Amino acid sequence: MPAPDNLQINLAAADLKKINEALDALESALAPVLVTLTGKEVQRLPKAADASLPFMQQALDLAEQQPNLAPGYVDIAGLRQDLVAWEQLQRIGRRLQPLASNLSSTSIKLGSEAYVTALAFYNSVQQAARQGISGAEDARSVLKTRFEQSTARKADKSRA
Asked: At how many degrees (to 10) do helices 76-130 and 53-65 cross?
């Protein structure tokens, strides 16, 4: 017997509307400041992490106190601006990360529950088709295409 549905989620249209409006507002507020990088661009960039923050703050403080030590190409005001914005976006990211993780976990769980239930139904349809129950063979023919496509993809990958 398949596991019972553990999640009972029903998002009302009004709730979905609020969620989408909040996401639209977030996207609209962040769009002017966000950039998109390719995977290669991300790989090439030195990475700052929370552990780098004290170093960056000390460098900024010292650069502001002793600007004569900074080469001409170092924009001290730009460093301050970048550091402030980086800290702000880090805080936003820390708030979004658990939400995104929980959203992903919930989606995975719901998908798993739906897939297990659909498989149980498919197994029942196969049994009904073997017993010659009316309509079962047509239902089996429709549902089996998912597994035929999967088998064909696996065969293609093994030949490559």
From this structure: 160
